[in-house]
Specification:
By secondary structure, this protein is an all-alpha fold. It has eight helices and no strands. Helix 1 packs across helix 4 and helix 5 crosses helix 8. The chain is elongated, with a radius of gyration of 18 Å.
């Protein structure tokens, strides 16, 4: 793909993620204006909103796959891997803010998302086994808390760079909000 075509596609996907999250019935005219491209270009790439939505899902999941790979959740020191993952996923969520619950409408995307979440859950079990997370928490609570904290800092701290937001998220997960 030519560089300008790749830039246009990225602009469409990023604008699509934002606009479809705000209003799933957003028009291609609005989307094209937001992306800085022609309406015809959007229609050439995507025959309908569902195709665009599914492409946004794939782009977001592809980006999360890169984050999961780069974080090295299976072998890097746990705190390092945790911070890498959180920092990377905050950047991805900000780029593609579409709600993951919408992925239920696309079986392939939903399956990929569940696989990614299982990778994070396995990592959180590793963190528990290595003593970073309390072992007395019910199964599933640590990864659920991680996802909630990430979502919170991603949108509550929009002026913080992903690394700064990750510092807060990781510290909150590991140390809580108490003074001790």
């Amino acid at each position: 793909m030519r560089a300008d075509a790749a830039r246009n596609l990225d602009a469409i996907l990023e604008a699509g993620a934002r606009l479809l999250e705000e209003d799933p019935s957003t028009s291609f005219t609005t989307l094209a204006a937001e992306a800085g491209v022609s309406r015809n270009l959007v229609h050439r790439r995507f025959p309908d909103r569902e195709a665009l939505r599914d492409a946004v899902f794939r782009a977001k999941l592809d980006a999360i796959d890169v984050v999961l790979h780069d974080a090295r959740l299976d072998c890097a020191p746990v705190e390092v891997a945790l911070h890498r993952f959180v920092e990377g996923v905050i950047a991805v969520i900000r780029r593609y803010p579409i709600n993951p619950d919408q992925m239920r409408s696309d079986a392939e995307s939903y399956t990929r998302m569940l696989d990614q979440r299982e990778q994070v859950a396995a990592f959180m079990r590793r963190a528990t086994d290595e003593g970073l997370i309390r072992p007395d928490l019910p199964d599933g609570v640590p990864p659920a808390l991680l996802h909630k904290i990430i979502a919170l800092v991603t949108f509550q701290l929009p002026d913080h760079a992903p690394a700064q937001a990750a510092d807060i998220a990781v510290d909150t997960l590991l140390r809580g909000i108490g003074q001790n």
